[in-house]
Amino acid sequence: LRRNPGEIEFHQAVREVLESIGPVLGKHPEYAESKIIERICEPERQIIFRVPWEDDQGEVQINRGFRVEFNSALGPYKGGLRFHPSVYLGIIKFLGFEQIFKNSLTGLPIGGGKGGSDFDPKGRSQREIMRFCQSFMTELYRHIGEYTDVPAGDIGVGGREVGYLFGQYKRITNRYESGVITGKGLSFGGAQVRTEATGYGCAFFVEEMLKARGTSFDGKRVVVSGSGNVAIYTIEKVRQLGGLVIACSDSSGYVVDEKGIDLDLLKQVKEVERQRLSAYAAKRAGEGAVFVPGRSVWEVDCEVAMPSATQNEITGKDAERLVRGGCLAVGEGANMPTMPEAIRVFQDAGVAFGPGKAANAGGVATSALEMQQNASRDSWTFEFSERRLREIMRDIHDRCLSTADEYGMAGNYVAGANIDGFKRVADAMLALGLI
Ligand code: NDP
């Protein structure tokens, strides 16, 4: 705490991991002897930089850029870039720290990192976004590379932004190094299923949790928060698996659509027109959809909750209400969306709780598959890639359960994910010497 004052989200993320790995440290004194915990909590490198750019009125704007290269014991640093006004070092460090264990859980050779900026893309023109991305990459390019650090998207960074970032990297370095960034468009080295991967993966993970309890998505009422990349493709896959998604949200409120969210319309409004969710509700008013401004979507009763917007969106009170409303399972599509007291409420009530490290790992896993395809100059079909994703999610689910079992915490996916993710990284760090 003393070393990292004011980094509240980072403290929260570290505490959550440390609380679950006590039993591992008891079994493996070598971790404590070589100070693995102290080492793992300190990023290998933190880069903070100025991002100057010019807006459409010709006015100079200054933002702050970050890249935290947290841990490269398992492979090159890997993790997304977030563009959101709330971004500061504590947010990037929490995301980078979580990313270490998530990436380890996938079983693929990727280390952990994260980056971003306090730039607010909302209301900015396409040209402003491009100029910002170009300026951001003009500094970032010297720190990244296929074998060093491979960024991707996150909040506020989708296919369009990744395109501008990659374009500037290529221009500065004169290298068509496809593996330097993932989430690329299909026409310039992107991989099938990467756009859908986090949402699809989260739906697959929850499907496994439900199956482990002898049930399925079939006919279940599902609420998904957010209406961005993760939310949209969670809704798509949940629907294909038989669930009925009745509500989703954005930062201004939520929409309830009892007949089920109209996915084509949602994609049109969010991905093509780049409008707010209230515009979706207005277009669906004839079908009974209602927009509720300024409130949390977690007041809507459901059997499955899939938070897919941002950190700390489900409070303890929300969790109590969800449990009373018959919630059976929670799958975190977002990173750390459930507050610690809310996790306890769910676990005490016997709700199947899939933490983000496990449930949303499908995005980064598919990014690693994109890197594989870039390295071999290959491109796989949609069906093959989706099959790989489904196998990876099933494997993560099963390992979480078996690890939790092995350490006497049957059914506790949080403990299973933290322990399994931690052990692999810790063992690699031991093997690599004092790094
Ligand atoms: P997007 O930018 O595509 O969408 C974010 C959505 O969340 C928007 O609907 C946004 O609403 C809402 N949102 C963002 N911040 C807030 C806030 N402070 N309060 C309320 N709503 C908010 O991002 P993604 O879908 O990519 O990311 C969503 C979450 O999933 C994040 O936690 C991210 O870290 C996590 N994640 C993403 C992965 C990916 O592959 N993209 C991989 C793994 C995790 P509005 O438009 O009003 O801001």
From TrEMBL:
InterPro entries: Aminoacid_DH-like_N_sf, Glu/Leu/Phe/Val/Trp_DH, Glu/Leu/Phe/Val/Trp_DH_C, Glu/Leu/Phe/Val/Trp_DH_dimer, Glu/Leu/Phe/Val_DH_AS, Glu_DH, Glu_Leu_Phe_Val_DH, NAD(P)-bd_dom_sf. GO terms for molecular function: glutamate dehydrogenase (NADP+) activity. Keywords: Oxidoreductase. PROSITE patterns: GLFV_DEHYDROGENASE. Pfam families: ELFV_dehydrog (PF00208), ELFV_dehydrog_N (PF02812). The keyword Membrane does not apply. Residues 191-433 form the Glutamate/phenylalanine/leucine/valine/L-tryptophan dehydrogenase C-terminal domain. Gene3D superfamilies: Glutamate Dehydrogenase, chain A, domain 3 (1.10.285.10), Leucine Dehydrogenase, chain A, domain 1 (3.40.50.10860), NAD(P)-binding Rossmann-like Domain (3.40.50.720). SMART domains: ELFV_dehydrog (SM00839). The keyword Protease does not apply. Homohexamer. Belongs to the Glu/Leu/Phe/Val dehydrogenases family. This is Glutamate dehydrogenase.
